[in-house]
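Submission sheet (multi-component)
Chains listed below:
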Amino acid sequence: MGTGRLYAAVAAGGFRRYATYRVATAAGVFTNTVFGFILAYTYIALWAEKPHLGGYDQAQALTYVWVGQAMFAVMVLGSNGFEAELMERIRTGDIAVDLYRPADLQAWWLAADTGRALFHLLGRGVAPMVCGALFFELALPTDPLTWIACLVAIALGTVVSFAIRYIVALWAFWLLDGAGAMQLTWLTGVFFSGMLLPLNVFPGALGEIARLLPWSALLQAPADVLVGEADPLGTFAFQATWAVVLLAAGRLVQSAATRRVVVQGG
Amino acid sequence: MGLNSTGTTGSTGSTGDISNTGYSGYSDGMDRHFIELDRVEKVFDVRKKTGFLRRERREVRAVDSISFTVARGEMVGYIGPNGAGKSTTIKMLTGILTPSGGRLRVAGIDPSRERTRLAHRIGVVFGQRTTLWWDLPLIDSYRLMHRMYRIPDARYRENLDRCVELLELADLLDVPVRQLSLGQRMRGDIAAALLHDPEVLYLDEPTIGLDVISKAKVREFLRDLNAERGTTVLLTTHDLQDIEQVCRRVMVIDHGRLVYDGPLAGLHEVGDSERTLVVDLERELPPIEAAPARVVKVEGPRQWLAFPASESAAPLVARIAAEYPLVDLSVREPDIEAVIATMYAEQAQYAKQTEFAKQTEFAKQTEYAEQAEYAEQADPARRPGEAEETVP
Ligand SMILES: Nc1ncnc2c1ncn2[C@@H]1O[C@H](COP(=O)(O)OP(=O)(O)OP(=O)(O)O)[C@@H](O)[C@H]1O
Ligand SMILES: [Mg+2]
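Outcome: structure written.
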């Protein structure tokens, strides 16, 4: 129970940390909304040309756009999340401070990132979604259960998002300069999460593979649950499997990193 | 604050005695060997790019066969020039670095094996880093410590109040850490390291960048902490006043080797230090001749003579007074900084020699033999320090 309270406190701290930057939050909401409009009009043009592309009707496609904008910060699809900070701590040796504490590194950062995600959901997710619903005709569910299922899918998605970025961040123990690795994950993430185009629009084998990769748990999964295109329980199982696999892989990397590799700096 | 404020410092039940008797009264082996290093080594593998796709591997012996013990309740200064291996030693003592060789125990625990278990019993302050939560008010970091170390509520409150009072943090608790000055942040960090009643506190350059008043505050706080709670303190610093005012014992490390272990005053004897006799003569005269003293400076009628600190000044003064027209004189004690500077310089030279020995691929034995020889040749006063180095 004591451990639970610690990580709850860490999560609360993660939430409040981001809450202190109000201007950045407002700027983020603004950007996401503008991008939402641009993408929405692009999708309207696209779906006018090819109705039922990827199995979505236009309202579903537009919903997908605004869910994407709402998830942009929550799933850390664009900017840097904690991984930039963790890499910097490894590079400068500040990680030393985290390592001598009686807390688990991965659990600590997961808690902090969960707090952050919760803040981003409220602070940067709700506003674009509401804005999209006001200006466009979206395919939003009326059944509260579907909304709850979507929230569960979002929660699972944030864990998968964290687990991917945690592994990437730990490479800094070997590479020291993790900027390259981070950019690569970022690009991969933007493409394979379906941020640009829904994954069910991807043709053939590429689509098959993209839908199986962990990134599809971040945006495609919650969006499909919301617009009623996916079975919630199957989606949860898919997301949870990736979450467990990636968290376990992260643990392996972590134990290798902290055992073998050196803490930098005097 | 009395006996009952020593808190969780062990199950002996006699922890309160520490402040009165120091560590000498303990027969319990664990307490006398609270921190124990036996020929501990740390070798870093450094890869250097020497050309396109070509890399050279080099070994850096950051800590080279160091042995010492620290008893419970001691306050020990750990000094040495830049790159000597101080921070590396501290990191091994916290468990975040694994030694490449040798045996290391803190409170009977192997730090790198059982880092989390040890974490509850140690406090760490790295002067150059912070454990505090950068974007959040100071108090939030303390609340986190409360949960992380599972400090009982009453205990947490008491410790926090005490630290807030003694380190003057009351006005800072609601300030985000990023807005604190260096000195304020350092005091905040020291408090954060002590809320869980650690038995030992490691401080790596805790006074770096602090002004005179902040330094004095920190030193006084550490002395009180040791006196009232019997906390063992190991601190590294480049400010010898930290040592003079806080530690009874000092260890000097250079090139990863322990070169002195004993009281600060003892460094004078080891360091071949010299005292200075300043004499004012009636008029300008050629440099005075009075072996073993030698003139190091002449300024008009005033002359400076250096002589070994171990010699008595009286016969020297008598001789000069008899032979020269003496008006006034004074004796200056050697400056401890100067003593240490000489010591570092000597060690640097010695290290060069051993480096040469290594390169010419002498067997390890030869090297150790040489080292022993070197110790023989050196001032015999070095021996006590050397003897303390080896753990029984
Ligand atoms: N991560 C590392 N990789 C390679 N070499 C290292 C590493 N950390 C320390 N060293 C080397 O080990 C030696 C000891 O370093 P250490 O930081 O312990 O010195 P220090 O006594 O704390 O010095 P300072 O007074 O400058 O803080 C140095 O030669 C340093 O270059
Ligand atoms: Mg150092």
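Remark: Residues 121 and 198 of chain B are 5 Å apart (CA to CA).
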